[in-house]
Write the structure tokens for this entry.
Amino acid sequence: MMMDFQVVVLAGGTSKKLVPLVSKEVPKALLPVANRPVLSYVLELLEHSNLKDLIVVVEGQDAALRVGGWISGAYVDRLHVEVAAVPEDVGTAGALRAIAHHLTANDILVVSGDLICDVSPGAVAAAHRRHGAAVTAMLCSVPVSGPLESGSSSGKDKTKKPGCCNIIGLDPTKQFLLYIATGPEIDRDIRVQKSILRAVGQMEIRADLMDAHLYAFKRAVLQEVLDQKDAFQSLQQDVLPYLVRSQLRSELSLNGAPHTEENGHDKVVPGDNQVMLSQLLAKTSTPSFHELYAMGPNGSAPVRRTHKCCVYIASQDKYCARLNSIQAFSDINRDVIGEASHLSGYSFSAQNNIIHPSAELGSKTTVGQNCMLGEGSQLGDKCSVKRSVIGRHCRIGSNVKVVNSVVMNHVTISDGCSIQGSVICSNAQLQERVVLKDCQILDRVLMVGFNEGSLMVTLYDRITRRKTHGGLRNFGHHVIFLEA
Amino acid sequence: MVQRKGSTRVSEDAEELVRVPLQAILLADSFAQKFRPITLERPKVLLPLVNVPMIDYTLAWLESAGIEEVFVFCCAHSKQVINYLESSHWFSLPHFEVTTIESHNSVSAGDALRLIYERHVIHGDFVLITGDTVSNMSLTQALQEHKDRRKKDNNAVMTMVIKRSKPSPITHQSRLGTDELFMAIDPYTKQLLYYEDKADHLKGTLSLEKMLLADNPSISLHNDKQDCYIDICSPEVLSIFTDNFDYQHLRRHFIKGLLVDDIMGYKIFTHEIHSNYAARVDNFRSYDTISKDIIQRWTYPLVPDVQFLGNYIAKLERQGMYRASAITSPVDKLNGELTCKLPETEPWSTSEVGSGGVGYIWSICEGGHEEEWRHSVAPTSADKLTEVMQATDDDLELTTQGSNVLLPSGELVPDSNSNLSEDDDNEDSRDDSVYFEKEVEATFLRAVHENVKEDHVILEVNSLRLSYNMTSADCAGALFYSVMKLALETPCNSNSELLKNVASVITRWQKLLKSYLQSMDEEILHLLYEKDILQEDAILKWASEKEGAEESDKVFVKQSEKFIQWLNEASEEDD
């Protein structure tokens, strides 16, 4: 069954939301999550579902080259991957439009490259096929955000409440998508089409679900929408809401497609209603509201054209998150070596951590639970590492504390530093007694603690691009990004 | 009335000790005129429903549900209702006290509840119901839910009973002929968050405040529920009605008011019944439907062959035919006294309200033909249905073409409300200006005919200007228009005569014009010139003409001096 699905992985480019973590050298797809590029999680998920023919779409030529280079190195004999470069800022719909001519299969599975989850795409595909849907979206519960144990989490939750996710309307059977609000629409009032509500009778509106950016599209539908609505930029904000809104008044010419047998009951069947009914009975035991709505006055042949928008709701115990913000980056790194450790693909030690055999630990240095220490990293004496990921070939001095942080590769941290809840990108250098809390330190930055005393940076939450702040200086062309 | 505010443990215990009898308010008036002309002579609650006055069903249910004290509020035809109740058994029952409250000047349920509040007869939670409700539901659970909620949250003032009933996709009406109802309910607490009956069909969307989702992670939107008009209320409901003296309608004002108002924070909850029956005779269609339901025994035990107070016992025979025991002779098919009859030979379908003439005999049917006993409610015929269907389809097409709901881009059109109101505003202002011009003209004409002094005219026009909120430029325009119209209306033969007329009128009323044209006229002159209405020569000639005129006359010229100067220079350059 999976043979009929063609998979498109939208790997993005250098997302502005993730600055300063991403750069020309490190596009979003190659950001390390537990010392593996984030894209590898999606690729392995697909490989696990036996989906081995993939198109990976990357924004920007340079990024495409880098991603392509990495894929061909890592998956040379495992996957058949085609890397396509599209111009930057075309949006997800634009990216699909650009590669539309590559699409040939009946159904297309579109996956965002920043998805980290353990839900089988096969389940989504099955739901899609079962209903003959035009589109099927995977929904998951909103991941827990923010540092796990800190007191600030409650405050954060309040501000994040319905703001960051989607507002989704479902039918009572939780199979069909009746309403979706994304992006700026969330801040407006919820406006539900009465016609859909009438047809279905009851709609459940949920704010605790998130669109996971894993969609199954009927290819004909996708191509038609992309062709006709050339203003559509985003799959999530334009294409999907459009399909949802027009589901009872479909403007799609589904019967024009060459795969008529696929669209069986969606198109107008001119034949007698016996055929219709038997078809309905064959498809589902009880006709969905779409079919009832499409039906003529006496259950005759359909008079209205409809298409179905389905959902697959991942169960609560599955892990599902998207790396689309710096907070998410920290959270996902924490989760992948913590509660969702089965995703990391590593085998954990008895202490529930991963320490590469080549890593060197000084005396009285402790590496706690849910930690990861990359290849060839060195830790000095009396260090303490908790719930953190430390990349390859890092040099860490003595008396360093690393808590709830991500330290990428080739980072040098001098003696006496304390790092909490921060991300330190590759090749950064921290000099003695630097104290960081909730910061991101860009590539190749040299950070100095000066005036003997420790440099205190306890700024919070958002990135500002102040070059000097709180005693930090701009060293040549290196810019220090701080949260303020 | 005992307010429960800040109730301590002690008072709660005390309250449990002093048992308040379960009370009910029965409104024996629908405060609507849907049943006219039948209700011109007879109150609606006494209309027979399968041979028994409706109010008996309601009272029988209240009694069986354990209500101990009923206040029957009578307004329209109150004497008839009271007389009927007095002659019935309802007053003589033990543990069931019926009290009538009479009023002649109540026009709404709100008035009725305010009046009852003033009487201080309600001491605890009560059931609010109208006298045309048929139900067999058990109140125990709903009451318990209501009481439990009240213990936790004092603001939970009302529990309304709802039942599943999907409106027809074609007529958008429920089986009971009521308009479709949109409700939003919290699926966990069952709190009512949104209530919209009498929905505006033109609006394709219904909008919920986004704040609703901030408080509740999920909301159920319902179009498939029916309001049974059975409410379990706390005593606060009466005081809310008294505080908000403009609340009239139970649903339209009270419920909406409580849902919108977030200062007091009153909450309304719902209780859904599943297997029980509850419906209200709200219109002719529901009259018909409920009658059928009774005959088909959905309302058991309130059926003709079970004796509840006040009805005649009838025997159920085959094919759903009820026959009164008094009749011994073989019943004629068409002449059965006290016979409720339902031809069950026709297949009964719930989806189509009137596929054929499903009818029954009310009471005495005098030798009519079959056709005549099909009259209770004209069924919606198949033709009509297709017509409606066609219309909705047309609507759909229209909306597709005009993209009423869906723009080509797939965006939902913003609520048409805002646009409409803007249009209204424009309309208003345009109307205003038209009226204003007419008024000014009338004032001016009056001045002409009655030789009113200019000062007075100016005063009048100024007052008009203020009342219509216009600018002085508008006055000038209106006045100038009236002046010119006057000149035009004076009979004349040739152009020169017309010119003369104009000149004379203008000179006559120059003072009037002047008072409004202080700053404008240079511009006006320029405009007229630009538009080639006034020839350059004419203006110059006018200027030179006025040169010799008196000072007051020269005001215009002075004001347009610059322009004339410019004209002079321009013509010199041309030379």
